[in-house]
Specification:
Blueprint: E1 9-20, E2 23-34, E3 38-42, H1 49-57, E4 64-69, H2 78-82, E5 85-88, H3 100-108, H4 117-123, H5 139-150, E6 157-161, H6 169-184, E7 188-193, H7 196-202, E8 205-210, E9 213-218, H8 220-226, E10 231-237, H9 243-247, E11 252-258, E12 261-266, H10 269-282, E13 287-293, H11 297-305
């Protein structure tokens, strides 16, 4: 439950509801974000992540519930809130003919306190592009400029809405490094993403949202440890094995087969492997290949939603 007056809590969201016509975008979500952490809202497109960000920015009003950022109500105290937050939205649209340094100067003029431009240009690898027009920047450079613009007011909270969508793996890693630097600087980051590996790598805490409901909350490790799936074993054998026999093995929670590979979830895995070897020996079969993988956030998402995040 939320604790009023807790100075370690920067963002507090309580029972937020938001409807667009017949669509319930948010159906009573509640969470808190501690100062200095990277907090992830993980869910598929349309889950309610962007609506949550927009309410925290004061761009939308909730139908019910409330939110506060650094003790401020985004709806009633938007001017004061603007000075404390920075935001990078899914699409940053700037005039084609605005130069990088002009964009930084323009955004800086909106705030009482600003970060040094030279520091921002260096931090985001844009020093050599300071005179370049926006239309001449690559996709990665535009994304780095969007992040720089989110930091022009030296904010307490940085809101990042799908910051790596559409980027290739190399550019994603560059953005990851910048987000990790935000945390090292002591900033608080709220990150929305539908990339499981992004949330698992970057976030101190993750809230899984699906169809407007918050269905799981915790650190990535906590969520994985709570998973009932156990360790995943991928097995290939010299002869086919009955799935019914595999399901009855000690420590095997469930199993499936695809293209000759058996997928077993087991806890503890060592006990299941011993039972499997004994079964194969009894049936005159042999273990050809075995891969062991710990559960991931993707396993957790499938378990709590019944579907994969991209569906």
């Amino acid at each position: 439950m939320p604790i009023e007056g807790n100075n370690s809590v920067l963002v507090r969201v309580e029972n937020l509801h938001k409807r667009y016509g017949q669509v319930e975008a948010l159906r009573g979500i509640t969470f808190e974000i501690q100062r200095g952490e990277v907090f992830g809202l993980l869910g598929p497109n349309g889950a309610g992540k962007t609506t949550t960000i927009e309410i925290l920015e004061g761009l939308r009003q909730p139908d019910a519930g409330r939110a506060t950022v650094s003790g401020l109500d985004p709806t009633r105290e938007q001017a004061a809130l603007k000075q404390r937050i920075g935001a990078q939205l899914q699409a940053t649209v700037l005039p084609d003919k605005i130069r990088v340094e002009e964009a930084l100067w323009l955004f800086s003029s909106f705030y009482e306190r600003t970060a040094p431009m030279e520091m921002l240009l260096d931090r985001f690898g844009l020093a050599e592009k300071r005179r370049a027009f926006f239309e001449h920047l690559s996709g990665g450079q535009k994304q780095r400029l969007a992040l720089a613009l989110a930091l022009v007011n030296d904010p307490e909270l940085v809101l990042l809405d799908e910051p790596t969508v559409g980027l290739d793996a190399t550019l994603r890693r560059d953005i990851y490094a910048l987000i990790e630097q935000f945390r090292s600087d002591g900033r608080t980051v709220l990150l929305t993403t539908h990339y499981i590996e992004e949330a698992e790598r970057l976030c101190d805490h993750v809230a899984i949202i699906d169809r407007g409901l918050l269905i799981a909350l915790g650190t990535p490790r906590e969520l994985i440890e709570r998973s009932g799936k156990g360790t995943r074993l991928e097995v290939r054998t010299s002869k086919p094995v009955s799935l019914d026999r595999l399901r009855k093995l000690e420590a095997v929670l469930d199993c499936a087969e695809a293209d000759g590979t058996y997928f077993l979830h087991a806890q503890p895995p060592a006990q299941a492997i011993s039972s499997l070897v004994r079964l194969l020996e009894a049936e005159g079969s042999a273990l050809l290949d075995l891969h062991i993988a710990q559960p991931s956030l993707e396993d957790v998402f499938v378990e709590v939603t019944g579907r994969r995040i991209e569906e």
